[in-house]
Design brief:
The protein is mainly alpha-helical and 84 residues long. The protein has helices at 19-33, 36-42, 48-65, 68-75. The protein is globular, with a radius of gyration of 17 Å. It starts with 18 loop residues before the first helix and ends in a 9-residue tail after the last helix.
Length: 84
């Protein structure tokens, strides 16, 4: 009997059928993408321009779709941030 690799859920990722499935697939994709093992392998291989571009794109999306309070609470985990 051979050992089966753990189910990462990758088989559940499917884009383009409907919005609900796209949202679920994106959430799973991002969880898989941010796994520590992958980050340790991928980040040292990125060019400086790729790092800057990725950070710029992601922070742009955060700032476009989140209010300042949400950004501080949801992304930074700063629950003490009070915007006056």
């Amino acid at each position: 009997m051979s050992a089966q690799p753990p189910d990462t859920g990758f088989s559940q990722i499917c884009f383009g059928l409907n919005r609900e499935l796209d949202e679920c697939s994106l959430a799973l994709f991002l969880r898989l993408f941010s796994r520590e093992e992958l980050m340790h392998a991928l980040i040292p291989r990125l060019a400086d321009e790729e790092i800057s571009s990725l950070v710029d794109n992601l922070t742009g999306i955060l700032h476009k779709h989140l209010e300042e309070k949400e950004y501080h609470e949801l992304f930074l985990g700063d629950y003490e941030h009070h915007h006056s």
